[in-house]
Amino acid sequence: MQVSVVIVSYKVPYHLSLCLGSLQLALRGIEAEIIVVDNNSQDETSQLISRYYPEVKYIQNNENVGFSRANNIAIKHAKGEYICLVNPDTVVGSQTIKNAINKHKSIDNCGILGVRLIDGTGNFLPESKINQLNLRIAILKLLGFSKSYYNNAIKETGEGFTATLVGAFMCFKASDYNKTEGLDENYFMYGEDIDLSFQFIKAGLKNYYYGKQTIIHFKGESTLKDKIYFQRFFDSVKLYFKKHYTNSKIMIGIASVFFVLAKYFKKNQMLKVNNRINKFHEAFVVSKSKNLLKPLEDQYKRKVSHLDYTNAKQTDFKETLVIFDPGKEHFDEVIDIMSKNRYCDNIFRINVPQHNVLIGSDSSTSQGEVIKLKADSNH
Q: Of 63, 83, 236, 318, which cross-links 344 as Cys (Cβ 3.0–4.6 Å)?
């Protein structure tokens, strides 16, 4: 088997369904399997998969065992030559998996390969490519200065070697993963991808950023303005230093001082929430059919115009609500239109095929909203 796609899911049934729909298209013509591990979501995840994606290998955990452990459970069952770790709140293009594997094969001694991530507004997520974590970079990050944390030497649509890649999408050979310790289960939710990236480097492999391939990641990296993630980042830094540096006690001590200082100076900032007001002048549904027009007009209490994908690709949207209905084949167009119209104060929502549910995020720090539409009687 060529590839095993591994997804760890927790309380995101509709995001997962959208992700799986995009993967069905991306895996056409590839000998592949999809393994989903659910961390005891206690929602409709199991029912949605069994009904709409019966080909998916589904593993149900009885507790939330964290990202690393859940991935390791799936990887033990994986049969593919390649492993692709994919977050459930992502949308991949039709060529994402194929191109990622082909690019990986073309690079000598390639370890982990990552791709360009955009958030729910179409904006690039700089954590797509990160420098190797050290004391200086960790302190600056804690203080809110992230420039040195991200690998800005590579353009967002470029490609090249980078120390660290993000766990939202990682492609690597199963045989290389077995040369490492694997995802460290001491990291519950934050930092395990940084650690794994470094493990591949220590094993003599080179990690690679492939910015010519783009996926949507609805929930971007949580900023250090959020006190929960602020603490989790620092806990991960301490574990990382302890594992990989001989002078870790000194490093952790220095970092701890700056952590306390950063907490003090950022106390008010951490309490702030994203106050973006969702205003739009026009509303469009981009779809092959007009079946969603009535439910959308009922939902938003205003006129919604219809565009097909050909016309939508030629349209410049500004301060517009754009609702995509990708069906089973238009995920590439969704990604392209969102990327093209970023920085224009647009609001993007995607209809999840089969469910009449809209999902979208107006911030790189949250999963945003899930809207259940009333089905049109003619739909």
A: 318
> Are 165 and 29 part of one and the same domain?
yes
Same domain, 320 and 203: no
Q: Does residue 222 lie within any of the structural domains?
A: no
| Angle separating helix axes 13-26 and 96-106, nearest 10 degrees | 60
pLDDT 10s digits, 153-168 = 999 999 999 999 999 9
Q: What is the CATH number of the domain that holds 114?
A: 3.90.550.10
Q: Which two tokens stand for residue 7?
A: 């997804």
Helix residue ranges per DSSP H, the chain:
13-26, 45-52, 67-77, 96-106, 135-142, 174-177, 192-202, 227-244, 248-265, 267-270, 293-300, 309-313, 331-340
288 shares its domain with 265:
no
Q: Select from 3, 64, 74, 9 the least CA-distant residue to 35.
A: 74
Shared domain check, 203 and 130: yes
Question: Does some domain include residue 275?
Answer: no
Closest CA to 360 of 121, 128, 19: 121
Chain segment 315-347, per-residue pLDDT in tens = 999 999 999 999 999 999 999 999 999 999 999
The CA radius of gyration of the chain, in Å to the nearest whole number, is 21
User: What are the two backbone dihedrals, phi and then psi, of residue 21, each rounded to the nearest 5 degrees?
Assistant: -60, -45
Is 188 exposed, middle or buried, given 0-12, 13-18 or 19+ CB atoms closer than 10 A?
A: middle
List, for residues 28-77, the tens digit of each pLDDT value.
Answer: 999 999 999 999 999 999 999 999 999 999 999 999 998 999 999 999 99
pLDDT score at 270: 46
Query: Are the CB atoms for 65 and 83 separated by under 8 Å?
Result: no
pLDDT at 379 over 50: no
Length of the chain (residues) = 379
As given in the structure block, the two tokens for residue 5 are 């796609």
Q: Do 135 and 264 reside in the same domain of the chain?
A: no
Q: pLDDT for 198-211, tens place per residue?
A: 999 999 999 999 99
Residue 276 is assigned to a structural domain of this protein? no
d(CA 356, CA 327): 11
Together in a domain, 266 and 286: no
- For the chain, how many structural domains are there in total? 3
70 and 189 fall within a common domain: yes
